[in-house]
Amino acid sequence: MKRLLTVALTAMLILVLAACGGKESEGKSSNGDGSDAGEEKVIRAGIGLNDKHPQYKGLLKFKEIVEEKTDGSIKVETFHSGQLGDDRTMIENLQINSQQVVIPSTAPMANFVPEFSVFDIPFLFPSEDVADQVLDGETGQKILDKLEGQDLKGLAYWENGFRDLTNSERAVSSVEDFKGLKIRTMENDLHLDAFKELGANPTPMAFTELFTAMQQGTVDGQENPYATIYLQKFYEVQDHVSNTHHIYSPFVFLMSKTFFDNLSEENQKIVKEAAEEAGKYERKLNREANEKYLKDLQEEGMEFTEITDEAREEMKKKVQPVVDEYKSKIGEDIVDEVYKAVKEASK
Ligand code: TK8
User: Atom 4 in ligand 1: which residue has the minimum CA distance?
Assistant: First the structure.
């Protein structure tokens, strides 16, 4: 019932937004030759995290660069904390151009472009540096190009970061400790199956519902980088944190393809470069944040449990059957290509 109501409300909202968006673009339509000179355009940009998070600071940087370089002919309106919807809803908003920018984790993207799930392979990236090289290189670009078939334009990769487990039940130091834990996962089948394989009892859920679910005990735990755990105040409802580092989660900077295609070539270049530059800034802030916040989480009363290399190796072995199973679903070629790029970048 609740779900039906949510679906109905979302549909209504999309209709209303589409109606407004329609009017707006009529008034500001391009000249038909791809040139948008002299017209003011508005980018509605939304993210899931709050305004304290490096993701939002990065978005403000994008706004600053775009507005400056286009002399204000492109305005960027920013929305945080899922004000425009959860990741999946916002991606759908882009497809109908009722919203122009979103920066989701790559995990829910797999529901649109299966190849994105390659980044959901546990323990794929050994370090942030290797992730940067693969994502910013040819392989990363190849995967971004797949978005065009979904009316989306991928402009750059940003960083969510290495994900760590928190819960309110017990200290987790080994595979055995996952047993029966009710863990929220992102809306992604590989994540769901990997946590099942570890013995947990996972539930996929939008990020916007997570805090309440933990507060009410619908789930025992979740996994996200320290920056998110701290800045979203998850320590208020979670007691334990372990440095599982089980997945490196990229963000992907998406633009509505309809909107992008209607920009002049010059403005296309400006938004692309702004997304990349703001992304570098966001990655830097994010890395500083992730370094700092584990200590702050402990100061807020969370108990930290160290995962040894052996325990992490055991987790990796345990989920290997899931990885093997998904290889063909994701596409053998792309999986092999990413493994090769990781190896190359790790040298
Ligand atoms: C924010 C999400 C979030 C992600 C998740 O929109 O869902 O857990 O890590 O940060 O993209």
Answer: 105
